Amino acid sequence: MRRILPVVAVTATLPLVLGTAAVAADDSGDVSVVNTETVQAKLDATGAVKEARVYEQLALTGHGTTTISNPVSTSGLRNLDGFGSFRVEDGRLVTQVDVDGEKRLRTVSDFDGDLPLGVDIRYSLDGKTVAPGDVVGRSGLLEVHYTITNLTSREDEVTFDDGRGGTGTATATTVVPMIGQLVTTLPSTFTDVQSGEAGIAGDGRGGTRLTFQMTLFPPIGAPTAEFGYTAQITKGVVPAASLTSMPVSPLEYPSFKGGSASYASGAESGVDLTTGAITINDNLLRLHDGAAELLAGIEQLNDGAGTLRDGLALEAAPGAGDLAAGLNDKLLPGSRTLADGLNGQIVPGARDLSAGLVGQLAPGAKSLAEGLNDKLAPGAASLAEGLTDVAAPGAAALAKGLNDSAAPGAVELAAGAAALDTGLASARLKAPALIAGLTQVDEGLAKIDKGLADLSTQIGGLPTKAQPLRDGIARMRAGIGSTAAPAPGQQPTLLYAVNAMRTQLGTASSTATSTVTSIGELKLGVTDPTAGLAAFTAMLPAGAQASYTAGLGRVAGGLDQLSDGMTTSATQLGTAAATLALVQCGLSSASLPACDPAKPGLLEGLGGLDAGIGQLATTVVDSVQGGVGTSSDTAEDGTLRGGVNSVRAGVGQIQGGGGELVAGLGRLGDGASKLSTGAGRLSTGLADAASGSQDLADGLAGAATGAAAISDGLGTAAAGSTKVSDGLGSAASGSQRLLAGLQSAATGSRTLSSGIGTAASGSSTLAAGIQRAADGSEQLADGLGTAAGAAPQLVDGAQQLSDEGTSKLVESGATTAAKFGTGYAVLAAGAARTAEEGMAYGAPEGATGATAYSIEIAGADGSGATNAGKGVAALALFAAAAVAGTVLRRRSA
Q: Is-contact 75 53, C-beta < 8 A?
C-alpha cells in the first residue's frame, strides 16, 4: 500500500484555522462574526453514505446590533440554542442580533450537498475478499484497505515562468485542498497488528489505536490516499473509524506554508538556472564560431606557410645558392680577367700603335709625298741621268725591300686590324645578353622581395584572425561574470545566479532551523497545561475531554515529526548550499573566500587562454616580420629583404657598368673598323709601291729606253705616295679613337668587376638569408600544422560542451522551472479554490468562515449497533469552535 505524507491532526488544529481575524459586519456599533460549519456524516462499514447533517455556528463579538444573512441548508433546520425559529429567505438564515460582548447562534440541518471526500473500504480474510459482516465471529488474517478520494478534482490550465523569458502552460489536476486523519481502535482480540502508514499506539485498555494522516492535494500529497492494516483476529469484528477533514490554503496553513514557499523558491531557482545556462550556452556557441574562424585562418596560414616553405627551401634557397656560385665562381673571375686584359695589354698596345701611327708613320708618309711631288718629279731628268749608274741599283733594292718587308708587314697589319674589328663586334653582340641576364636577375629579386613583403603583411594579420577567438573568450568570461547584481535591463551572470541560489539555499537552511525552534514553541502552545490549548480541556464536556486530550497528544506527536522533517530539510539545504559553493569555486576561484586560489576556476582558465593566444599571435608576428625586414633594410640589418636589396643594388651597378661596356665596345669597334680600313689601304698602297718599285727597277733597268718612262713612273709614284700619306693619316686618327674606346672599355671593365663583386657578396648574403627564411618557414609551417591539428579540438570541445553540458543544463533548468512552477501554480490554484469553494454553504457577507467534516464509519459486531463513540467528534468540533471564538476575542482585545 502507498505511503502518504504525515500532517498535523485535524481535530486539534481546527481552532488555529478558525481563529483568524474576522471582518465586522454591522448595522450599528462594532460586531465581528465568525461562521463555522461542521458537516457530520455517517457511513456504513463499506464507506457508503447513510446520513449527513451540518452544524452551523455564528460566533459574534463586540457591541451593537447587526443583521445576519447566513447561507444554510434549510432542510430540517433547527435552533440548537432554544426553541425559537429563524427567518429563511432564498436559502439564507436571516436574523437581527444585539451583541454586548459575546453571543453564539447554533443550528443544525440536513446536509443536502455532496461530501467532498469519497470513502471506499475493502476487507479480506486469509487472502479472500469478504463483506464486513462476514468478518464477525471469524478468525484468521484480516486485511482492511481504505481509499479516501478528494472528489473536488478537476483539470485546469495553469501558467508558470518557463525560464526562457516567456510563460509556460500545463494542464494539471487541481482540487480544493483537504487534510484529515482517520482514527480507528482495534480490540484486544486483534494481535500482530501491521501497518506501513499508520501511527500505532495503545488505547490504555488492551486495544490498539491506529492514526492515519492524509494530505489530499497535489503536489505535496495526492487527491487519493490509500492505506490500511493487517491483524490476526479471533472472534472477529469490524472496528468503527472516525475520519475528520477540512479544507486548507496551502499558501497560508502553517504546516504547508514552508512547502509551498519551497515550490516557489524551486521555480525561481529553475528560472535562474535556465537563464544562466542559456547565457553560458550562447557564449559557448560564440566561442565555437570564433574557434571555427580561427581554425579556418590557421589552415589558410598553414597552407601559405607550406607554400612559402617549399618555395624558399626548394626554389629560392637553391636558386640563390646557384646565383651566388655563378657570380663568385664564374662571372666575378671572368670580369676581373677581362679588366686585367683590357688594362694590362690591349690599352697599352693600342696606345703604342696610336703613337707610332701619329708620331712616325703618318709624318713619314707625308714627307714622302712631298718629296715625290716637290723634288722627285722635277729631279726626274737628273734622276734619269743617274739611273744607269745609281737609280737602277737603288730601284732594285727598293723593290726588293718593298716586296720582302713592307708589303708583307702591311698585309699582317691589315689582318690584325680585321681580327680586332671582328673580336670587338663579337663582344658587342654578347654584351646585351649579359645586360639582359642581369635584368632577369633583378626581376627575380624583385619578385622575392614582393613575396617577402606579402609574407610580412599576411603574418601581420594573425592577431586579427585570432581576435574572434579572443572575443568569444571575452563573451564567455562576461557570461560567467561576477557575483555582483546585474544593472537594470542587463541579464544576470552565471556566477550571480549560482551565488544567489547558494545564498537562498543557505537562508532556507537557516529558516528551516529557525522553524524547528518555532515548532517547539508551537508544541508548547499546544501542550502547556496553563497557556496552551490543553488549558481549554476543562471547558469541554466530560465525555469529550479524553478525546480532546488525546487529540492534543497527536498534535504534539505530529509536531515532533514535523520538527524532525524540518531538521532533515535544514541539513539537506545546507548540503545543497555547500555543493553550490563548490560549483561557484569551479566557475571562479576568486568568487568566495573559501575557494582555493591554487585551483583556478573556469573564469581564470579562460583568462589564461586569452593571454596565451595574444602572446602566441604577437610572438609569431614579431619573429617572422623581424626576420623578413622592410623595404629600406640593407645587408647590414641582417634581414631577408635587406639581403635582397643589397643584391639588387649590386645588379644595378653591374647593369650600369654593362651599359658603359657596350658603349665602349661600340666606340672601340668603330676605331678597329677604321684601323682595318686604313691598314687595308696601306697594304694596297705598299703593294702598289712594290709593283711600282719593280716597274721602277725595270724602268731604271731599261733606262735606256727613255727618260719619259721614268718621268711617268715618278708621277705614278708621286700619286701613290699621296695615297699612302692619306691612308696613314686616317690610320693615325682611327688609332686615337681606338685608344679612347679601349680606355673606356678598361674603365667599364673595372666598374663591371666591382659591381659583380658586390653582386657576388650580396648573393651570398641573399643565399644565407633565404636559407634562414627557409628554416624559419619550416618552423612556422610545423607550428601552424600543430595549431591546425589542435584548433579543431577547441571547436569540437566548445560544441560538445554546448551539446552535452550547457544545453542539457538549459533543459534541466527548464524542467526544474516547469516542475516547481507547475507545482506552485497548482498550490496557488488550490488556495484560490479554498477561498471560493472551501465552505459547504458559505459565510455571511463580511464574516470569516470555515468548514470541517466529521465522518463516522460504522463497524460490524453482529449486534447492528454502531460504535458507542458516535457523536463525540461533533461535540469535540463544537468545543474547538468555542475555543476559536475565545482566541479570536482575546486577539481582538
A: no
pTM: 0.43
Q: Which of 743, 873, 698 is nearest to 241 (CA)?
A: 873
Per-residue pLDDT at 839 exceeds 80: yes
DSSP codes, 858-886:
P-B-SSS---TTTTHHHHHHHHHHHHHHH
Nearest to 760 by CA among 359, 335, 414, 313: 335
CA distance 543 to 526: 20
Mean pLDDT of all residues belonging to the chain: 77
- Residue 160 contacts residue 170 (beta carbons within 8 Å): yes
pLDDT at 345: 65
3-state secondary structure at position 810: helix
For the chain, how big is the Rg over CA atoms in Å? 65
What pLDDT, on the 0 to 100 scale, is given for residue 887? 39
Beta-bridge partners for 79: 107
Distance CA 645, CA 854 (A): 109
CA 370 centroid distance within chain: 110
C-alpha cell at 784: 601552424
8 in Cβ contact with 555 (< 8 Å): yes
Check: CB of residue 85 under 8 Å from CB of residue 109: no
Contact 35, 849 (CB under 8 A): yes
Section 335-363 average pLDDT: 70
Cβ of 555: how many Cβ atoms within 10 Å? 25
Q: Give me the residue label for grid cell 733606262.
A: 703
Rounded to whole angstroms, how far apart are CA atoms 94 and 70?
A: 7
Q: Are 439 and 655 in contact (CB under 8 A)?
A: yes
What span, in angstroms and rounded, lies between the C-alpha atoms of 739 and 742? 5
Q: How far apart are CA 349 and CA 629, in angstroms?
A: 51
Q: Is the pLDDT higher at 52 or at 597? A: 52
d(CA 62, CA 27): 12
| CB burial of residue 617 (10 Å; 0-12, 13-18, 19+) | buried
Mean predicted confidence (pLDDT) in 766-781: 71
Burial (CB count within 10 angstroms: exposed 0-12, middle 13-18, buried 19+), residue 870 = middle
Q: Which residues are paired to 92 by β-bridges? A: 71, 89
Residue-wise pLDDT for 425-466, tens only, equals 776 676 677 677 767 767 877 877 787 677 678 777 767 777
Please give the Cα distance from 679 to 681 (Å, whole number).
5
C-alpha 887/C-alpha 893 separation (Å) is: 10
Supply the CATH classification number for the domain 31-110.
2.60.40
| CB-based burial label for 185 (10 Å; 0-12, 13-18, 19+) | buried
Quote the CA–CA distance of 893 and 885 in Å, as a whole number: 12
The answer to whether the CB of 65 falls within 8 A of the CB of 26 is yes
- Given a contact cutoff of 8 angstroms between Cβ atoms, the answer to whether 303 and 460 are in contact is no
Name the maximum alpha-carbon separation found in the chain: 212
* DSSP letter assigned to residue 319: H
3-class DSSP state for residue 52?
A: strand
Q: pLDDT-based confidence at 387, cuts 50/70/90?
A: low
CB atoms near residue 139 (< 10 Å): 14
Amino acid at 640: L
Amino acid found at 175:
V
- Intra-chain end-to-end CA distance of the chain, in Å: 49
Residues 6+ apart with CB under 8 A from 636: 642
Contacts of 492 (CB under 8 A, 6+ apart): 272, 275, 276, 279, 481, 485, 486, 500
Residue 530 carries which side chain, given as an amino acid letter?
Answer: T
